[in-house]
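Input sequence (189 aa), recorded before submission:
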Amino acid sequence: AENILEAAKVLAEIAREPRQATMYIKDLEGREHLGDELTHDLLAELNRSFITPIDREDIFNIAKEMDSVIDRIEATGHRYVMLGIEEAPSQIQELARMIVAAAEELVAMMKSLRNLRRLVAENKPVVEINRLEDEGDKVYRAAVRQLYSGAHDALFAIRWREIYDHFEETLDALEDVANIVEGIAMKHA
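Predicted structure, token format:
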């Protein structure tokens, strides 16, 4: 979760300074590789463990979804370079801020897994991630509506639609992790 948060911060820098995207990509790639290593280490430890604090399938699902989050962050960063993005519209910066905020909540949520009863009782990180994803959907829809308003040429709209889609999918992936954790908490509360 902390690695995801750091990757989200790098993505926010790319969103703020798209002309510097190439400089930030190496950091994102390193974070994605670290995420893969952490996932492999966790799954190896899971295979060696006889007793786990929560169901094996749940641990596997969390790991798989968290890997998906970091993959999406990296893919989003790469889109800036691939598509030659040099602008920093406010909607993208807002979506990047939401991704960072959701990643911060993800860190808090993972720490609270140690106390499932408290996680169920308070449920703050899960609720906040869901709220951020809902807010992100509104920003995304408004941005896409603006793209297709006729004010932009087709190539501009295609480029930015892909960028917006990747940001929105990253928020969706963060919400997917939150939903899995919420389900685990409900099972064990």
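Checked by second reader. The first helix runs from residue 2 to 16.
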